[in-house]
């Protein structure tokens, strides 16, 4: 047994620290009589006692006082009573929506389609900037196309939504939009639906059995 020099607790042999107070234990005392072989001679009885080793910081204090509590982790600051603290968030991503495009400048010309064959010969249809629908009046929706050929198509060869003529700045295009009998420009092969073709003044456009002529005049 090893007796603690601090509190007198009897500890089992081989321990380095006291089970009672945690103080570092001195080496076990030699048996009564002569000192163990190879051991240094005992210090004279009148020599001052060596100071006791300091207790391990992790051991309990010898005076019975409670060990200081470990420092608490710093708590996040709380918002004042009645105030809701908004969570911090990353800056919102930049708006990726492209700005609206500026309206196209009005065309420096005026354009029209005139019936030259297959209907009311000489009937004219002024064209507007942007989209001009070519077709026939639709009684189900009550919509009128910009170029209404209902009176020029007694055999109903023209679809209600037949073609789309578009004026965009200085460019004029025509596009078949899925008509039944097709659209033709200058008697070329039938246009492929959804494929615009550029046209100019004097061009002939055939819609069903109605022949139209495009006229473009500069604005004076």
Describe the protein's architecture and organization:
The chain contains no helices and twelve strands. It is mainly β. Mean pLDDT is 76; it is low at 29-45 and 53-68.
Instruction: State the secondary-structure class.
Output: mainly beta
Bulk shape: rod-shaped
Rounded average pLDDT: 76
Q: How many strands?
A: 12
Distance between the termini: 123 Å
CA radius of gyration is: 53 Å
List low-confidence stretches: 29-45, 53-68
**Main beta sheet: strand number and arrangement?**
5 strands, antiparallel
Instruction: Kindly estimate the percentage of residues that lie in beta strands according to DSSP.
Output: 25-35%
Characteristics of this structure?
220 residues; mainly beta; five-stranded mixed sheet; 0% helix
SSE order and pairing:
Layout (H helix, E strand, L loop, with lengths): L1 E2 L6 E2 L97 E9 L6 E3 L3 E6 L11 E2 L12 E8 L2 E6 L6 E3 L11 E2 L5 E4 L2 E9 L2
Parallel strand pairs: 5-6
Antiparallel strand pairs: 1-2, 3-4, 3-12, 5-7, 7-8, 8-10, 9-11, 11-12
Task: Give a concise summary.
With 220 residues, the protein is mainly β. The chain is 0% helix and 25% strand.
